[in-house]
Design goal:
Rossmann fold; seven-stranded mixed beta sheet; globular
């Protein structure tokens, strides 16, 4: 059985961790809304698989409160160190973090909920990971996952060709680098793992204007992906100037007054019978 977390193709550098933190600020409202809609609430015991620097863990910790408990699981010790520091700074003593493969996690006692964001796409065995979640849950427990699906692309308006080209590049990259679970596969994977009922929705943020964080987010995402994208033939070295990309995306969007869609995310809420 492969290590779910070590398959992360964008790497484990300090710069990539900062990119993930910036991305998390954009995605936080969608993730929190999903967790609230699923019923995450005071006193629940929660596990966050593939927690990274702890963004989803900390949202969950605030929702379950002082009487609840959140355990974040990840393979990257540097990311876990950051997660622990951030939780301490936010006085979230109910959040703890363990270093291990998500596929190897087995709780001593069953938990109320298992959550994960952008982990199945980086897992060679997504069904096995959902089965881990299933086995960790109490009867009636919740599995709550969010995954990108670059096959779902909303065009910009007014059109912003460079932004749309970037979405195409990321779609090609993730299709070739990660021939694994996409967001729209969450429903069938959850059913195959034994969950009933299963509910899925697709959501994404849209933004624009000179102050949008989207430009730096996309430029830094490409920077992380670039060596792998070149190796896979998605891009040639020198095709895109990453150093100027954020500013060029900004200038295009502002000049056209464009509204820019982020990649689509599928949110899945599944319950163990």
């Amino acid at each position: 059985m492969s290590d779910a977390s070590s398959d992360y193709v964008l790497g484990h550098s300090d710069r990539e961790r900062r990119r993930l933190a910036a991305q998390a600020a954009i995605l936080a409202p969608i993730t929190e809304q999903l967790l609230r809609r699923a019923g995450l609430s005071s006193g629940m015991r929660v596990v966050d698989l593939g927690c990274g620097v702890g963004d989803v863990s900390m949202i969950a910790a605030r929702l379950v409160g002082a009487t609840g408990q959140v355990t974040g699981i990840d393979i990257d010790p540097a990311a876990l160190s950051i997660a622990r520091q951030r939780a301490a700074e936010q006085a979230l003593s109910n959040a703890t973090f363990l270093q291990m493969s998500a596929l190897e996690f087995r709780p001593e006692t069953a938990v109320d909920a298992v959550v994960g964001r952008h982990i199945l796409i980086h897992t060679e065995e997504p069904l096995a990971l959902l089965q881990v979640a299933y086995s960790a849950l109490k009867p009636g427990g919740l599995a709550i996952f969010q995954e990108y699906d670059f096959a779902v692309v909303h065009p910009t308006y007014p059109r912003a060709p460079l932004w749309e080209h970037m979405l195409e590049i990321f779609g090609d990259f993730f299709h070739q680098a990660l021939r694994r679970a996409r967001g729209t596969q969450l429903y069938s994977l959850a059913v195959a793992a034994g969950f009933r009922p299963v509910e899925c929705r697709t959501e994404y943020s849209m933004d624009g204007g000179a102050d949008s964080p989207f430009y730096e987010w996309f430029a830094e995402s490409l920077r992380s992906a670039l060596p792998h994208a070149v190796a896979l033939g998605v891009l040639r070295a020198g095709d895109i100037d990453v150093e100027t990309l954020a500013e060029r995306l900004r200038e295009e969007a502002v000049a056209h007054g464009s509204c820019l869609p982020a990649p689509a995310m599928v949110g899945c809420i599944a319950r163990k019978p």
